[in-house]
Amino acid sequence: MTILVTGATGNVGRQVVEHLVKRGADVRALVRDPSKAEFPAGVSVAQGDFLDVDSLRNAMSGVSTLFLLNAVVPDEFTQALIALNVARSAGIERIVYLSVIHADVYVNVPHFAGKFGVERMIEQMGFKATILRPAYFIQNDLMVKDVITGYGAYPMPIGPKGLAMIDVRDIAEIAALELLRREQSAEPLALERINLVGPETLTGTDIAAIWSDVLARPIHYGGDNTEGFEQNLKQFMPAWMAYDMRLMGERFITDGMLPEAGDLERLTKLLGRPLRSYRTFASETVGSA
């Protein structure tokens, strides 16, 4: 019984592999370049790519449970559908898919809409799956650490509604636990969705206040300018992706990313401990500088 982890060299996927190995699972990792893959002992490596169908067939041979994680790329939806079709042909029924919270609400944001399309296909194709729907990754803010510390401003367009930000380490551990729950079940378990949220719903002003406390100097929130946000992003990412992120920021401001009743309690019970806070992340970031 083998669990295949896709996106295995990324921040989430790599940690999922580590959690599974610690818990004694038989893990296979799908990677583009095996020479750059560093995994714990016992992990088998399959070279492949979502658009290379033969490599996917090889990687999924003998697999019982799949962790499906697709990068934000222009053809993300196509890649996911190819993976699902190959998985079904390989007889894989048990899946954990990393989607995004409010995928059915942020309908004009390309990578949200794509993930919601994948969710629909998982249902229509009859997979027994856990669809994980994480809110904003706390570690995304590592991208703006220098702006915060150097210019005294928190620039992300979080807005006044608030985001239930979650630590990537918690996402990875929950994903591993769900993979194991499905893998170890005598029969495939029914499809379900789980919102992955952090312990607090934070506004842009809230986050600036946390950084002010941690750095012991004033940090102001200046992130509601989504047009400026897009232009800044275009300096280090493709224009299409910068525009995608701008659209996401606009929905942050108008809709927020809000947990549903019982989400936090469910995750705390699943992990057996409290979820990590944004303040903890900020303190660790400053301490490691």
Automatic annotation (TrEMBL):
It holds the Pfam family NmrA. InterPro entries: Ergot_Alk_Oxidoreductase, NAD(P)-bd_dom_sf, NmrA-like. Residues 2-248 form the NmrA-like domain. Gene3D superfamilies: NAD(P)-binding Rossmann-like Domain (3.40.50.720), UDP-galactose 4-epimerase, domain 1 (3.90.25.10). Transmembrane segments: none annotated. This is NmrA/HSCARG family protein.
